[in-house]
Amino acid sequence: MRSWLRSMQIAFTFIGTVVGAGFATGREVMQFFTRFGHWGALLIATATLLFVWLGAKMMLLAAELKAKSYEDLNKHLFGERIGTWVSHLMLVLLLGVNAVMLAGAGSIFSEHLNIAYQTGLLITMAACFALLRRGMNAILAINTLVVPVMFLFTAVLVLHTLNGPGSGRWLTLTSEQSPFAAWMSPFLYAAFNLSMAQAVLVPVGSAIGNPTVLRRGAWLGGIGIGVMLLAGHLTLSSRMPGIQQFDIPMGGIARETGPWVHYAFIFLIFMEIFTTLVADIYGLTLQLQERLQFSRSALVLAVLFICFVAGQFGFGPLLSTLYPLFGMLSLGWMFLMGRDRKLRPRPPSLPS
């Protein structure tokens, strides 16, 4: 029972790290899947398989290597010299992703709560700083609380959609996008999210160590991500193409179900953004601590300030510009992860 509970914690952290600003708001699902029409469901199935396979492999490699941060994993994959440069690039990418997360939080405050965008950014930064002072256990705990509730409210939106007139559009929706762009999409999406998630999954894999627990966590987490992707795709497809006008399309759909469900779902979207932001900044500061002789609190403040400055560009422009670019850069990382054969069997041990 203890090992199953630990696997569930890993799964929820895996889901919570991937289900961030773009996913929870609906923008990522729109960009990578829904805009390809009826192909979306098959593309989501492909992405789910990649999450399960490579998520498990990443954590098992981290446990095998006893990696302190994602730089140790990158040096294993690319070699000492190139791995160091890849880690430098990852620092830049993570800063960009965190800026998107922070901008997404600001958009929630401005679009749905009538609170100024800048105020939303500052509130999110303060909460993030407070939680990060508690370390990895706080990240595992908050994901264990938030992710199950997110599943519940996603199910509410799906049921609301199934009772509406456009419930079957995900099977018939047409698209003018090219087949090449469609089939590149799940690989770009998985590559980007997995390469970003290594900031958290590598320390988790190294800390847990038990191969059985890690594999089970990867299966549960990967399938959970796939279910939420499909639910988001089904919901968004029923409102295409008009839903594309919103920065936070899932929030617009939640508004249709009544004020209480709307505000509860908006809060959950914020929490999903928040959990990813916290997890990514945690991994980023671990990496920075290996290079800079500053306290973790000082590094967290510096990273948050950089994200605040970048967040002035706005959520929609940042996501639509940066995410596809980061996905292309992450394909090389995913290819090396997939072909790596240096993982050795390890006797199981009780999880800590």
From TrEMBL:
Q: Does the keyword Transmembrane helix apply?
A: yes
Q: List the InterPro entries hit by this protein, alphabetically.
A: YkvI-like (IPR038728)
Where does the chain cross the membrane? 36-56, 85-109, 115-132, 139-160, 180-205, 217-236, 260-285, 297-315, 321-338
Q: Which UniProt keywords apply?
A: Membrane, Transmembrane, Transmembrane helix
Instruction: Give the protein name, as stated in the record.
Output: Membrane protein YkvI
Lineage, top ranks: Bacteria, Bacillati, Bacillota, Bacilli, Bacillales
